[in-house]
Amino acid sequence: MTSDFAELTYPTGTARPDGPLAWAGYDAARAAAQDRTGESESVICGTATIAGRPAVLVSFEFRYLGGSLGEQTGDRLEAAYTAAREQRLPLVSLIATGGSRMQEGMRALRQLQRVAAQSAMNRAAGLPQIAVLRDPTTGGGWATLGAGADVVLALPGAQVGFAGSRVRPPDADPTAYTAEGQYAAGAVDAVVEPEQLPTRLGHWLRLLTTPTTGAPEPPRALGDPAPPTTGWDAVGRARSPQRPRAQTYLDAYFDSREPISGDRCGGRDDGMLCGFGLRDGRAIAYAAQTGTPTRPAGYRTAARLIRLADRLSVPVLTLIDTPGAANDAAAERAGAGAAIADVFTAVAASRVPVTSLVIGEGGSGGALALAAPANTWATPDSYFSVIAPEAAAAILKRPREDVPDLAGELRLRPQDLVELGVVRGVVAH
């Protein structure tokens, strides 16, 4: 998978016999692990080239005491993060660990704090971190190097979870502790077949380290190029099942792309497509609604994407297409208001340019959250409204037959939005 691997130089020290706890037989166990693996610790760290892209690589050796983290493991991990900062390189972790090393007690567990501190410094330096979850990835290794990475990939069938197989509740659902289960719960971005891993990693490294310059240009319109004649006509065209959706726009706009998935809080929303794509050889991040009511997990995923792109200096494209935020009881219990507020804040705080295009329905605040305040465009077959005409009629206690007229009164057509200063223009076909 790699070429030109050069192992780092690690700090050395004199350890007391059998470690900090004087755990009987610990030295013998380490010696046996070294004989078995040829390695003197559970991780190997160095610089490498992955599919043509340079990176600092951390690789766990599970056969060495279950890939557990001890003080010397922490020394090596700190050296890897430091090398990444000094050389301005992304860090890729190939994880296979059972957690912290019991034979070193709390001295081992404290290595998680060291890892977290180093990871925070690399984030502040604008350097990406990618984790690959192998079998198993449990305990503190999952809760720091794994779940704390910017992009989390996993191998099929890998055991992934904070609790290892011997310490979880006996009646626990085993599928929750798998790569696939963590993907479904929004904690993993993609499950990748082993033979695809080098190519996918190389692609990700390119996406996260070669940002485009300036604001992304809005995509060209792919649907009906004629402007709508009435407000109700605009609504009908935006709701048409024949209208091109986000997937079509993304396919036409990007040469290639990789998705991120999940809100890292237990949820996914297939109605929000997020990730990074290459256009003319440079990277642009994207968050795209697909025409469905957007759920809280979708908004949280979009906010995660926008903040990550901002930290890595990658401009953002958002595609707006929703009748509105999901408003059922489940959405309210999942924190719909807070999730929408999070996207508003992420867009407002972004230091990188954000370009937005309304490609279909622009329903109220659930759509506006993704809109760049000064750089939003519209397609001819879209609308953007403070509220859907039907909902406006209900609130105003007007009969249903007034709905078409209300659509006109709301001034929601693309050309109305230009006149009102809500969008910069209507994109050409």
Estimate the mean pLDDT confidence: 96
Q: Helical content, roughly?
A: 25-40%
- Give the oligomeric state of the chains in this entry, treating copies of one chain as homo and distinct chains as hetero: single chain
Number of contiguous helices: 16
Q: Main β-sheet, in a few words?
A: 8 strands, mixed
The assigned structural class equals alpha/beta
Q: Which outline best applies? A: elongated
Ends apart, CA distance between termini: 43 Å
- Unreliable parts: none
For the CA atoms, what is the radius of gyration? 25 Å
* Number of distinct beta strands: 15
Instruction: Report the sheet-strand fraction.
Output: 15-25%
What report would you give on this structure?
This protein is an alpha/beta fold. Helix content is 36%, strand content 21%. The chain contains 16 helices and 15 strands. Strands 1, 2, 3, 4, 5, 6, 7 and 8 form an 8-stranded mixed β-sheet that branches. Strands 9, 10, 11, 12, 13, 14 and 15 form a 7-stranded mixed β-sheet that branches. The two termini are 43 Å apart.
